[in-house]
Every structure is written in structure tokens, then in C-alpha cells.
Write a structure and sequence with these properties.
By secondary structure, the protein is an alpha+beta fold. It has three domains: 70 residues; 170 residues, no CATH class; 292 residues, no CATH class. The protein contains 13 helices and 19 strands. Strands 11, 12, 13, 14, 15, 16, 17, 18 and 19 form a nine-stranded antiparallel beta sheet that branches. It is elongated, with a radius of gyration of 44 Å. It starts with a helix and ends with a strand.
Length: 653
């Protein structure tokens, strides 16, 4: 017994020693792994930059950094431009940059796949660089290389571009622009299809020195696995240490020597059941069944004890042979088979889609600039300033209002264009000019004011967007479902037969309703409910004005389509948003000899006549915005918004 106890004590000490050794080894290995992981992360994952730079010496007024140069490496682009007193830099879609340049000479900077540096080429009238050559990003840092000449490829003419150099600053085509003195450094993150234009003021030579940098992260693939593995190994070492320590404490406790008692006698073996021979089966079926039932539990238990280990071992063995769902050797079920996408399908689809005229941030910037300018013009009654951002019916209404307010200071001004967020943006799908975009702006300072719907038109690349229509939406107006701004809406031809009424016929039909009321043939085509403009200037209003006129004078009304351009953009319900203008004239004449007519305040301010025996004619301009349903629809044409104003008043000849 003493020898046995000595053997047990020696075995315990050996086990404890082995656990302590393994714990120490685990601690050391964990520390080494963590240190190596941290060292790799600190040294190999430092952020560096890849830089491509060049110097332009041809003296062209513009320099274009093509999309292929901007995407030569992955990540955001940091541009450093210097070499002139004034530096202007802007980025926009490559097609818009090319359209703005037109036939003007410029310097193109691009990058070819596999090239060590940037390629610089001088572009003249009728030439265009490979600006749309979208190359894959290069790897690692690129060394600076001298400029190389390149030949351009012909590009389609831009009929709206002018040959005269101009300052690109402030153009509505740019997504964002920057200006600086002497040197400009900015960081952007633009995708393929975006180019940058660099200039001084459009007349002087563009800045000479241009550098593009990208952040490049050197990969440290083993940093995280080493750190995580070191932490796990440290935890295992701690567990082994605590386990060995607990075992050591238990081994030092006093052991109780229990007296060994007498050995227990062996139990006799249970007798085996006798084998029943066929000759001994003489009893009834019940006795046989009872005998089998008595012997079945013990044999069943033996069978289970024998089969269970076999089943467990077989399951463990077979589990190692089960198929791996991720293995490429196991055939996938028909429901999970996916076809690899065609690499050429997406570009072909993208080429067929006409891009929208503007992006949402671009349109919001245009609206803010226009609203600030309009507010300044409204305050100073400066029609020349207003003309730089307004045109058509919207311009003539505001200019006439300025004349009236100059003569009558307390005369009400037209609703201001709010410099607030744009709630709806619907650009036209267009890659050529003119371009149109519609938007709805809500006054954030006073939500009670009806939202303003504006329609802007850009006639050519070098012209800014001008407000052609600006109307207040009806209180009950429901704007139909529109296409997302990133897709845009196709324009609808004025004579389109796919609407309940062609856009070119809407102005004349609505003018006839204002003149004849329910007697008009077009009355049933337009929704009367919620049309507040019809109640303000329609047939009932005109009859009431005739009745209020003295018997010594007469009044005549006429309504005709206006000179505003018809704008129609498709909606998602196969209908269209249509903007038109109409003109109303009121002619007041004296009937009795010697009688005179005295115009009202606004008419007097525009005509300069206090009283006249010939008569006075006043002209009003109406801007109207409709929703026209698709052909075959049971819905009616709905007036969404309107704006009216006196634009002229003159004495009859």
C-alpha cells in the first residue's frame, strides 16, 4: 500500500509539472504572437500615397483631367494644382465637360493601363481625347514620368458651343467647383465617368503643375489572426495554470489512511435460461409467449449495449465523410444554381439609358443660387439681374411687377422663390441641349405657404439654367407618381397621341373653358373640382365684372395661348406633367361721347394714363401646370398650380 501511495504522489507531481510547463509555453507563445501581430500592423499597414504628376506647358486656357487619370488608382483623389495666380477647378460628368469646351483648345491629361505616368496631349478644334477610356486601377505606387504626346480621336460637334474662350466658373454643369490663389489642394472621391476642368479665368493659360495622389494601404494579412490567436492561446495558458495550481493545492492536503476491510464475497452468477427444444414445446401459446416475454428484456438490453457503441462509432466515422456544402465536388440542387452574370450585359444596358440632365445635389445648388439672386432682384427691383436667371413667362411677370412696385411702393410683390430644400426633382433624360428640369420647393420658414413648382431650361452648355415657369401648387393638388431623380423622365412630344389631349392643345382648350365655361367643348376633359384659378378668372368672374361696370363703358375679354414654350415630362402612370402659358386681355372702352375710362392702380402704373376717352387694354400672363392622363384613361386633366400677373397696360390707339 505504501508503494502504491508513493506511485500516486509521483504521478500527481508529474501531471502538475506538465500542466505548469504547458501553461508557461502557452503564455510565451501568446506573447510572441501578439507582439508579431502588433508589429506587422504598425509597420506594414501604414497609409502611403501613390502620386502621378505632370507639367503642362502648351499655354491652353483649359486643362481637362480625364476620368481614366482620376481612376488610375483606387480610393479618393487628392489634387494639387499650381502655376497661376488664380486657380479654378471643377468636376462634372465627362460628357458635360466635353460639351462645355466645345471647339475651344485645351490640354487633355489621361492615363493608359500599364503606363508609368500620365499622358498629356494638346487638343484643338474638332479633336477629343480618350476621356471615356475607363481603365482598371493600377497597383502600387506610380513613378512620375515625363509627358508624352498623344493623338486625339474625332468627336461629334457641339453646335451650341462657341469658339470664344469663357470663364468656366459658375457654370450649372459642374457638380462642384473650387477656387484658390497660387495653389489649390482638394480631396474628392469621384467614380468613373467624371472629369475635371482646370483653368485660370478662361483667357489666361491654365495652371501648369498638376498632381494626383491616392491613399495606398499596404496589406498586413497576418496581423489580426496573430493577435486573435495570441489572445486565445493566452486564455488557454491561464486555464492550464489555474488547473495545475488547484491540483497542487489538493495534493498537499493530508491523506486519510482508511483501514482495508474484508473483501466482499463474489456474487454467484445468475443461471442462464434453459434452451427450449422443439420437442419440449407442449404447452399452450400463452405459456410460450410468457416465457419469451420473460427472457426478452435481458436479451434486448444486451443487444442495445452491443449495437449502441457501433452506431456511435459509425456516426462519428460517417460524419467525417459527409459532403461539404461549400465543396465544388458536391452538385448543387437546381434551386441554388446561379448563372454567372454576363460581363458585357451591364455596359450595354447602361449605354442605352439616357442620363438625367442634372443630379439632385446639382439641382439643389442651382435652386439656391437662383433663389438668392431672385431675392436680391426683388428687393432692388433690378430687372437686369433677374434676367440672368429667369426667362419666358416667369420673367415677364416679375419684370412687370417691378414696374408696378416702382410706381406703387405698397403694391404686393410676387411670391418669392424660397431657398429651401427641394422636395421633388424631375430632370429630363437628355444628353443634348436644350435641357429641362422640374422641381418643387417648400418654404421651410413658413410651411403655410403653398409649395412652389419651378421649371428650368438650359439652352446650351455654356448657358445657365433659367426659370421659365414658377407657379404655386393648388391646395388640393396631388402630384402624380414620378420617376426617381437618378433616372429622370423622358420628354413628351407636343403632338403626342398617347395622352388624353396633346400638350400643344391644352392651352387653347383651357382658354376656351375660361371664356365659355360649361358651354366649352373641352369642359368635360378638365377637372373642375379643386380648380381655384377657374373660379378667380373664369366665366362667372367675368360676368360679375361686366355687371359691376358703369353703363357708360363696356368691357371685352379674350383668352389665347401664350408665348411660353410647352414643357411636358412623362410620369410613371404613362401620363405627363405639362406646363403652358395663356394670355388674357381686358379691353375697357367708354360708350357715351365725352365719357372717359380711368384704369386701376396697376394698370395706371404700367400705362401711365390717368384717364382716357379711347379706352385701355390690359394683358395678363398666366402660367399653368397640368397633369395629363394617358390616352384611354377615365381620369381628367387636373390643374396642379398656376401663377397670374399683369404684364402690360396701354391706351387704345
Amino acid at each position: 500500500m505504501r508503494t502504491r501511495r508513493l506511485r500516486l504522489a509521483w504521478h500527481d507531481r508529474k501531471v502538475i509539472f506538465v500542466r505548469f510547463v504547458f501553461a508557461i509555453v502557452a503564455f510565451v507563445a501568446a506573447a510572441v504572437m501578439i507582439m508579431f501581430g502588433l508589429a506587422q500592423r504598425a509597420t506594414l499597414q501604414e497609409s502611403t500615397t501613390a502620386t502621378l504628376s505632370t507639367t503642362v506647358r502648351d499655354g491652353a486656357p483649359y486643362t481637362v483631367i480625364e476620368s481614366s487619370a482620376l481612376t488610375a488608382n483606387r480610393g479618393s483623389q487628392t489634387l494639387t494644382v499650381s502655376g497661376s495666380d488664380t486657380i479654378f477647378l471643377a468636376y462634372g460628368r465627362s460628357m458635360d465637360v466635353a460639351a462645355w469646351l466645345g471647339d475651344d483648345p485645351y490640354t487633355s491629361i489621361e492615363h493608359k493601363r500599364g503606363a508609368a505616368g500620365l499622358k498629356v496631349s494638346e487638343q484643338r478644334a474638332g479633336d477629343s481625347p480618350q476621356g471615356t477610356d475607363e481603365t482598371a486601377p493600377t497597383e502600387s505606387e506610380q513613378a512620375e514620368a515625363p509627358a508624352e504626346p498623344a493623338e486625339g480621336t474625332p468627336a461629334p460637334e457641339q453646335p451650341n458651343a462657341t469658339a470664344e474662350s469663357a470663364n468656366p466658373a459658375g457654370s450649372d454643369l459642374w457638380l462642384e467647383e473650387f477656387t484658390a490663389e497660387k495653389e489649390l489642394t482638394t480631396t474628392i472621391n469621384v467614380p468613373k465617368g467624371i472629369s475635371i476642368i482646370v483653368a485660370s479665368d478662361g483667357s489666361e493659360a491654365a495652371p501648369e503643375k498638376i498632381a494626383i495622389s491616392w491613399p495606398v494601404n499596404k496589406s498586413a494579412p497576418w496581423a489580426d489572426p496573430l493577435i486573435i490567436g495570441g489572445v486565445i492561446l493566452g486564455v488557454i495558458g491561464l486555464i492550464l495554470y489555474l488547473w495545475a495550481l488547484a491540483h497542487l493545492r489538493r495534493s498537499r492536503r493530508p491523506r486519510r489512511n482508511l483501514p482495508s476491510g474484508p473483501r466482499m464475497p463474489r456474487l454467484p452468477r445468475a443461471p442462464r435460461p434453459k434452451t427450449i427444444k422443439a420437442s419440449q414445446i407442449t404447452g399452450s401459446r400463452g405459456s410460450i409467449t410468457q416465457s419469451v416475454a420473460r427472457t426478452e428484456p435481458r436479451s434486448l438490453r444486451r443487444s442495445l449495449l452491443t449495437v449502441t457503441p457501433v452506431l456511435v462509432i459509425s456516426g462519428l466515422v460517417l460524419s467525417g465523410c459527409s459532403f461539404d456544402p461549400a465543396s465544388d465536388k458536391q452538385p448543387a440542387s437546381p434551386a441554388t444554381i446561379t448563372r454567372a452574370p454576363d460581363a458585357t450585359a451591364a455596359p450595354k444596358a447602361a449605354e442605352d439609358i439616357v442620363p438625367p440632365a442634372v443630379t439632385v445635389p446639382q439641382f439643389e445648388r442651382i435652386i439656391r443660387k437662383t433663389a438668392v439672386l431672385a431675392a436680391d432682384a426683388d428687393a432692388t427691383l433690378n430687372a437686369d439681374t433677374l434676367a440672368t436667371r429667369f426667362t419666358g413667362p416667369a420673367l415677364e411677370q416679375r419684370v412687370a411687377n417691378y414696374k408696378i412696385r416702382a410706381a406703387i411702393p405698397d403694391f404686393a410683390a410676387l411670391p418669392a422663390l424660397p431657398a429651401s430644400r427641394v422636395t421633388i426633382t424631375l430632370p429630363q433624360q437628355a444628353s443634348v441641349w436644350p435641357r429641362v428640369v422640374m422641381g418643387v420647393v417648400q418654404n421651410e420658414d413658413d410651411p403655410s405657404i403653398a409649395p412652389t413648382a419651378v421649371i428650368l431650361r438650359q439652352e446650351s452648355p455654356r448657358e445657365n439654367y433659367l426659370v421659365e415657369y414658377a407657379v404655386q401648387l393648388e391646395p388640393a393638388a396631388e402630384v402624380p407618381p414620378l420617376a426617381p431623380a437618378v433616372i429622370g423622365a423622358p420628354p413628351i412630344a407636343p403632338d403626342s397621341p398617347f395622352l388624353t389631349m396633346a400638350p400643344a392643345d391644352i392651352a387653347a382648350a383651357y382658354a376656351d373653358i375660361l371664356t365659355q365655361g360649361e358651354a366649352s367643348p373641352s369642359f368635360a376633359a378638365f377637372e373642375a373640382e379643386g380648380d381655384t384659378f377657374r373660379t378667380q378668372v373664369g366665366l362667372e368672374y367675368r360676368n360679375a365684372k361686366k355687371a359691376a361696370l358703369p353703363t357708360t363703358a363696356s368691357i371685352e375679354f379674350a383668352t389665347v395661348p401664350g408665348d411660353g414654350k410647352i414643357v411636358s415630362l412623362a410620369t410613371n402612370d404613362s401620363g405627363a406633367i405639362v406646363a403652358v402659358s395663356i394670355r388674357e386681355t381686358e379691353t375697357v372702352k367708354p360708350i357715351d361721347a365725352g365719357a372717359t375710362v380711368s384704369p386701376e392702380k396697376a394698370s395706371k402704373a404700367l400705362s401711365g394714363v390717368d384717364a382716357t376717352a379711347k379706352g385701355i387694354q390690359s394683358t395678363y400672363s398666366d402660367q399653368l401646370l397640368f397633369h395629363v392622363p394617358a390616352a384611354g384613361s377615365d381620369e381628367k386633366i387636373v390643374l396642379l398650380g398656376f401663377a397670374q400677373g399683369l404684364i402690360s397696360s396701354a391706351e387704345l390707339p
